[in-house]
Amino acid sequence: MPSVRTNSDLYLAMSRLGSSTRRPLEEFLRAWWSTGYDHSDDKALEPDELVTWVRDALESPAPPYERYWAREDLGLEDLDGFSSWSRVIRAQVCDLQEMASSGVLRTQASYLGLDAPRPAGTGRRPTTRRWFNLDVASYLESGVIATVGGWRPEFEDAVVDQAPPEPLVIGAFDWSDLTRFVMGAQTHQ
């Protein structure tokens, strides 16, 4: 019997995973990208499989950052499936590397969003420059919310004006869903 059946189950599972690590987001993304090749031929992943994959990536060694990624054209034209997801992750790794080296990540007001500098010579990227989620926990939580929803006010003792929607049963995530997940993980507020 699957343990992750609803959007709220997935939100809680990802929240727990993200909160359990001190690993920098950029390092996690390199490990997630690398472990993604184990799933590259899969058409879709069940929610439990997605959670297991993220857990594995949190524990796996991260390959080194390759400087040439920053100069590559990482556009998504004529791509789909794993290749699209992979390019978005690599673009995000490049952004985070450039933000760290330029000092942008030391900015105190990161909760307002930070822009990746993308210096001269940078190749095209499929993502916006703007980042709102710069740690693993907020990245994973925001990816869930942007893709399937699932946050509930009782998770954080929030006061709301109306009852939230009931949790929704979710199905498998194909690569277009996973690409939306990682794009939303960067920008969802």
Walk me through the structure.
The protein has 189 residues and is mostly helical. It has one domain (7-187). Helices cover 45% and strands 4% of the residues. It has six helices and four strands; from the N terminus they run H-H-E-H-H-E-E-H-E-H. It has helices at residues 7-19, 25-36, 47-59, 82-102, 136-148, 175-187; strands spanning 44-45, 114-115, 130-131, 173-174. The strands form two sheets. Strands 1-4 form a two-stranded antiparallel ribbon. Strands 2-3 form a two-stranded antiparallel ribbon. The protein is globular. The relative contact order is 0.20. The model has no long low-confidence stretch (mean pLDDT 91).
First-residue to last-residue Cα separation: 33 Å
Uncertain runs with pLDDT below 50, 5 residues or more? Answer: none
> How many independent structural domains?
1
Q: Count the E strands.
A: 4
Tell me the β content.
under 5%
Radius of gyration (CA) equals 16 Å
Structural class: mainly alpha
Task: Count every helix, treating DSSP H or I runs of 4 or more residues as helices.
Answer: 6
For the biggest β-sheet, the strand order reads: 1-4
Gross geometry? globular
**Overall pLDDT:** 91
